[in-house]
Specification:
mainly alpha
Length: 65
């Protein structure tokens, strides 16, 4: 379980770094900066969750084969 938590932290940092290149403020109405930041955080957490679960399952199943 410690490995999965460690992977969450590492992948979350990587997804935030990768999503930093997207300018989400232009997608929202004027003066909705905090709404764009919340969406940014939710998307980065969701991507981190999906990537960690994929990697964790992939390595677990590859050890069985």
């Amino acid at each position: 379980m410690f490995l999965k938590a460690f992977l969450y932290v590492i992948v979350l940092v990587i997804t935030i770094w990768a999503l930093d290149s997207i300018n989400t403020t232009n997608l929202f109405k004027k003066n909705k900066y905090y709404a764009s930041r919340v969406l940014y955080l939710i998307v980065s957490m969701a991507l981190a969750y999906l990537v960690v679960n994929f990697l964790y399952d992939f390595f677990n199943y590859s050890q069985i084969v």
